[in-house]
Amino acid sequence: MQARVVRRGYTLKVYDCYRPQRAVDHFVRWTKVRLFADGYIAEKSGHSRGSTVDLTLVRIPPPAQRLYVPGEPLVPCFAPRDQRFPDNTVDMGTGYDCFDPLAHTDNPAITGAARQHRDLLRSTMAAGFRNLPEEWWHFTLNGEPFPDTYFDFPVSRGSLH
To answer: How high is the pLDDT of residue 134?
Structure first.
């Protein structure tokens, strides 16, 4: 999949992949009722099965991305791109993890370059993954090997080497 987007001048940026079930449990406790009721937060997640990934596109060469300064005011994730935090990703019409109808993959209000980027990401990932319609960034492996298992082994910085 990476090779497909590289040929088009992009690279994949992974936001989230495996997530221990204990982290999902924490999200459920932390979230507002609206996010849970609207289906944006679930008690069980494909991330805990090791079969779901959240990702987007970045142009090659990747532009620098400035660091977020704690306490810096942010604007809504559905605000126009030039008003949101300046990350190094391409315009997808909303920010990542934006729990808003504008983040729905096929929302008709998303047009132009953002529509093209969403379509490229989805068509690239269709070679083995299916998109969650409410989140343009969320893809789950087709034929996942552990569809009913929610793993809970912890991940630490030291285990990533």
So the answer is: 94
Name, in order, each residue with C-beta under 8 angstroms of 140's C-beta and a sequence gap of 6 or more: 46, 51, 52, 129, 130, 132
With a cut of 70, say whether residue 43 has pLDDT above it.
Answer: no
**Quick check: is 159 in a domain?**
no
What is the pLDDT at residue 95? 96
Domain total of the chain: 1
Residue 39 resides in a domain? yes
Range of the domain at 133: 2-153
Residues acting as catalytic residues: 135
SS (H, E, C) the chain: CHHHHHCCCEEEEEEECCCCHHHHHHHHHHCCHHHHHCCCCCCCCHHHHCCEEEEEEEECCCCCCCCCCCCCCCCCCCCCHHHCCCCCCCCCCCCCCCCCHHHCCCCCCCCHHHHHHHHHHHHHHCCCEEECCCCCCEEEECCCCCCCCCCCCCCCHHHHC
Q: Which CATH number is 15's domain given?
A: 3.30.1380.10
Predicted structure pTM score:
0.81
Q: Contact at 8 Å (CB) between 149 and 118?
A: no
Residue 13 covered by a domain: yes
Q: Report whether pLDDT(154) > 90.
A: no
